[in-house]
Write a structure and sequence with these properties.
By secondary structure, the chain is of the alpha+beta class. It is built from three helices and six strands, in the order E-E-E-E-H-E-E-H-H. The chain has one domain. A six-stranded antiparallel sheet has the order 1-2-3-5-6-4, covered by helices on one side. A hairpin with a 2-residue loop joins strand 5 and strand 6. It is globular, with a radius of gyration of 14 Å. The chain starts with a strand and ends in a 6-residue tail after the last helix.
């Protein structure tokens, strides 16, 4: 179901946040985020999506999508989305730089940490 124009698809250990269905990853970059605590996958996905949009908002026709899944060594984040034009190496590098940013990674995990009070 769409929430504020965003579709949130939940599976057992995976969440996907996307603007359009079906989900398309014409642009796709994956990263592993080390995480040894309980976090909300949806919150991680939403934070990555927001930062990705800020970084790539100059891409006309871009429809963002982010998938976050649990893995033995942390969280696997797949970010990207649908594009009406070919993906360039420069565009892929811009997204990879975001996913590799230590400051962003720390903020994403801190924001998504589950708290005992709610």
């Amino acid at each position: 179901m769409a929430r504020n124009g965003w579709h949130i698809l939940r599976e057992a250990d995976r969440v996907t946040v996307t603007r359009r269905l079906p989900v398309r990853f014409d642009l796709s970059v994956e990263a592993v985020l080390p995480c040894d605590r309980e976090v909300s996958l949806r919150r991680v996905a939403q934070q990555v999506r927001q930062d990705m949009w800020r970084r790539l908002q100059d891409q006309r026709g871009f429809a963002p999508a982010v998938e976050v899944r649990r893995a033995p060594d942390g969280l696997v984040v797949r970010a990207g989305g649908a594009l009406p034009h070919p993906v360039t190496a420069s565009l892929r590098d811009r997204l990879a730089d975001l996913l590799d940013s230590p400051a962003h990674r720390t903020r994403w995990i801190a924001h998504a940490e589950r708290r005992a009070d709610g």
